[in-house]
Amino acid sequence: MLTAQKKLLLSLIIGLAGFTLFIGLVIFPLMNRIKIASQECLNNQDILAKLDQRVSLFKELKKNYQDNEDNVLSLNNAFLDSEETVGLITDLETIANQIGNFFEIKSVSSSLLDKEKIEGDNPYLMFNIYLRGSFPELLNFMANLENIPYPPYRLMEIDDLVIKRLAKEDLAFVDFDLGEGNLETILSIKVYIQ
Description:
By secondary structure, the protein is of the alpha+beta class. Helix content is about 55%, strand content about 20%. The chain has four helices and four strands. The chain has helices spanning about 5-75, 85-100, 135-145, 170, and strands spanning about 100-110, 125-135, 155-165, 185-190. Helix 2 packs antiparallel against helix 3 (about 135-145). The longest helix has about 70 residues, at about 5-75. It is rod-shaped and about 140 Å long. About 10% of the residues are buried.
């Protein structure tokens, strides 16, 4: 029969085997699940942090939009309405006459009619203008382009500018009273429209 020492040793071995089995079957899977859950928690925290950043960025953009809403509305007013084209032409003629330039619009074209227009470009009208007068008058006309009266046509762009000094033989073909040394200017102006 078994002695007390052998019984104690056998119960210790069985207890140790049971404890090892308990650790292998219960503790390690639990630790593995805890590790996976903590990794998911960390991943979810990163996702929450990114969402929080997006929410704060959205709030900041919303606040910036509200702060700049008046600017956006005034920007829309800077585009020329198609109904106001005649008014713009009249304003250009008035400015040229006040300054003393001979003024003639040679052509007006629209980017809306251009089949090769790049998508995403803003539509515009292109005015090809001939001016004849002195250099200070030309500068005065150019300066007044920025300040055309109501409505303010601010979205203008000078696309092309050619300046030629008029010689005596050039004046023979001009019906306007000009002196030798005055300038003939060919000006292409883009006016952005809605």
